[in-house]
Amino acid sequence: TLFPYTTLFRSLGGSMFPLRTISTQWFRRLQIGADLFMFNKMNNRAPINEATNNSGFVGVEPDIYVNWRVTSDVAVLIRYGVFLPGDAVAGNSSARHFFYTAVTYSF
User: DSSP string spanning the chain?
Assistant: First the structure.
């Protein structure tokens, strides 16, 4: 094949700082956002790390997240997403939930 990759994903998202105008410094750098990912196989018969059939649509994943720069040195990240399998996924077609948290200390 011409392409070494077997999957293609598209994304759409947005974010905002809803508390930027409040008087306290604590929450001015609180960012909330959402992303939507769509996964497809570039070749319907291409193998991926999931049991699939000959359909191309692997699924979609909406995510929501909060990024908070607590101080100039500390950031907290929280992300939740749910993968909704598409027609290409064989077998277990139930939703898969993902939860991610991180604290970053920069120096």
Answer: ---S--EEEEEEEEEE-TTTTSS-STTTTEEEEEEEEEEEESSTT--BSB-B-S-SEEEEEEEEEEEEE-SSSEEEEEEEEEEEE-TTB-S--S-EEEEEEEEEE--
Q: What is the pLDDT of residues 22-36, one digit of tens each?
A: 877 778 899 999 999
Contact between 87 and 58 (Cβ < 8 Å): no
Which tokens hold the place of 20?
Answer: 């930027």
Which of 85, 69, 84 lies closest to 30, judged by CA?
A: 69
Q: What is the residue type of 77?
A: L
CA 91-96-99 angle, to 5 degrees, is 160
pTM, full prediction: 0.80
